[in-house]
Amino acid sequence: MKRLSTIIIVSLLFLTACSYAEMIDEKVAGEEVTNQQNEQEIEYALTKIIGSPSASSNPNDYVKAHPEEFAYIVGQGELALGYFLSEFKKTSTDGLREYVMALACTEILGSLNPIENWETGRAWYNSYKQ
């Protein structure tokens, strides 16, 4: 009888541990989906910012025209920073998109931003990664 009790207890502990591991796996998978959704929303906001005003050659005009979208991106904090840094790493382009990404990164980093003077988004990124 004592042996049967021990087997039952060990079995219950094993089942509980398996259930807990499955819950952790599901939570991690859910966070990955959420991060992907947030990254898509960040990309959407970025695309909206760089879409207008098309008559301007000043990148700051694009940000000023879309304060809500820019605030959303900056509000995403570390997630947006990581997403933009990975986007910089994927390409070597240096246009309006990169400028707005760099501007958002500097806002997110705040006083932790090590780069004070930069003229292009790519220049900011190249200095930042060093």
From TrEMBL:
Cross-referenced PROSITE patterns: PROKAR_LIPOPROTEIN
- Secretion signal: which residues? 1-21
Tagged with keyword Signal? yes
Query: Mind listing the UniProt keywords for this protein, alphabetically?
Result: Signal
Q: Which domain of life is it from?
A: Bacteria
Specify the protein name.
Uncharacterized protein
